[in-house]
Structure formats: structure tokens, C-alpha cells
Amino acid sequence: MTTTADAAAGKAPASPVRRLWAPAAASAVVLSATLYTGLGDPYSEGHFPGCMWLALSGFWCPGCGGLRATHELVHGDVAAALALNPVVVLVILPLGVVALALWWRSAWTGRPFPRIPMWLAIGLPLGLAVFWVARNIPVLEPLLAP
After folding, report:
1. Residue pLDDT, tens place only, 63-76
2. What is the pTM of this model?
3. 3-class secondary structure for 86-106?
4. How many angstroms separate the CA atoms of 76 and 88, rounded?
5. CA distance 64 to 33
6. Fewer CB in 10 Å around end: N or C, the chain?
């Protein structure tokens, strides 16, 4: 499919193979990282890097526990994953999968990637900021800390 910009520039449309290499490479990296996280032990020191924010400030960041949550998901323990970081399990990972699927669809059909809705572009960082603060409130730590 030739886009308007390609037609105006006199370019031939990219071949499907050329369009698909980037999402294929990204999928391979994500799959490899997921397998590495599933095979490794994030509970032992030295296997994975620690959280720099936690080390510098002593406060949990929105991603703290996300690596261990991914490890637990790979092993099928959804309850443990949710206990470690519910935002990573319920928001970040599903959004990542949807974005990767949309990228594949866009590359396959030759259509542009769908626009990110403004409510999502504003709401996601705002929600992460609220979670960041909430998980460091002492009363909520038993519920939200990894």
C-alpha cells in the first residue's frame, strides 16, 4: 500500500519483508528477555540489577517488583505476580502486548500505526505517578510494596 507521503515523494512502497523486520526483531528481544527472566532467579542477588531509584532514595518506584512479577507470570503464578506489582501485571505488560500487536498489524498491512489517544497519553503517566506515591505511603505499603 502506498502512503500519501510515499506517493508525493515518488518512493515505491516498502516490501512486506522490509516492513516486518523491526516488529520481528522487537518481538525476538521481548521473547528473549521474558525467557531469560523466567529462567533466571530475580530473588537472588547479582543475577539482575537492582532498582537504582530504591538504592538512591529508599522509596519504591512504579517498576519495583516488576521483574519478579514477570518471573512469576512466566511460571504461571498470577497471584504472586499481582502481589509484587499489580500495575506491571494489569497495565504495563498488557499495553506492551497490545502495542506490539498493533505494530505487527501496521507493518503487515502497510497502514500507519494508530494514534495514541490523548486520554491514554495523559492518564498513563498520571496513573503511574499516583501509584508511585501511593505505594510509598506507610499505611498502603503492605498492599502495594513489592
Report:
1. 999 999 999 999 99
2. 0.80
3. HHHHHHHHHHHHHHHHHHHHH
4. 15
5. 17
6. N
